[in-house]
């Protein structure tokens, strides 16, 4: 059975029974639990179900579909993002000056930074700044600008002007799409401009992108792949996409779950 057929039957089962488990689905379709977890993650990304511990439940819909906010996206691919963030933490050097953007994957990175770390962190994310402000040895610099409610971030000309005055050791970025043709992309033009400015200010650019982002292209371009040094993703990513990106000189790290 092809994955698309399995996805269709899983979605139908959730609609009919309200709840399914990984064990039941793995037995029914004669595949591994890991395969089912990837299926559920993809169906959750498409808004067809909500993942729970050990399975998934039906999504209750209203008559008007509400947009997925960053608070909602934080729960999508949560395990994958946590694993990617742990790998990214290994690239955060002690006493370095880094930038962390306002994406859901990079918020996971901020969660991993312990209070004993000695760092200077630049961010336009109110969430990241709030997480790290209480760390005694982390100097947090919050960039100002027009606040975007969904992502709780500051963007715009003021933000970009401040970045022009900075030099950074590394920038850690979340994106919505990674592909060979358009490089890294996101859905918001203003945020894309801020991400691009941070990359120009940094000696190294590290992209945190779960496997669902590969092959996708969104509305706003951030940068070509030639400007990216490292991409960190999770196992299950399409090997052809990884190979294509590596052919452009990008170091791709695939982390296990």
UniProtKB/TrEMBL annotation:
- Residue ranges constituting the HTH deoR-type domain according to the UniProt record: 3-58
The record lists the membrane-crossing segments as none
Cross-referenced Gene3D superfamilies: 3.40.50.1360, Winged helix-like DNA-binding domain superfamily/Winged helix DNA-binding domain
UniProt xrefs under SUPFAM superfamilies? NagB/RpiA/CoA transferase-like, Winged helix' DNA-binding domain
The cross-references to Pfam families, in alphabetical order and at most eight, read: DeoRC, HTH_DeoR
Gene Ontology molecular functions = DNA binding; DNA-binding transcription factor activity
Spell out the SMART domains in the cross-references: DeoRC, HTH_DEOR
Note the InterPro entries from the entry: Carb_Metab_HTH_regulators (IPR050313), DeoR-like_C (IPR014036), DeoR_HTH (IPR001034), NagB/RpiA_transferase-like (IPR037171), Tscrpt_reg_HTH_DeoR_CS (IPR018356), WH-like_DNA-bd_sf (IPR036388), WH_DNA-bd_sf (IPR036390)
**Keyword tags:** DNA-binding, Repressor, Transcription, Transcription regulation
The highest taxon in the source lineage is: Bacteria
- PANTHER family, A to Z: GLYCEROL-3-PHOSPHATE REGULON REPRESSOR (PTHR30363:SF4), HTH-TYPE TRANSCRIPTIONAL REGULATOR SRLR-RELATED (PTHR30363)
**Function of the protein:** Repressor of the lactose catabolism operon. Galactose-6-phosphate is the inducer.
The name of this protein is Lactose phosphotransferase system repressor
Q: Which organism is it from?
A: Aeromicrobium piscarium
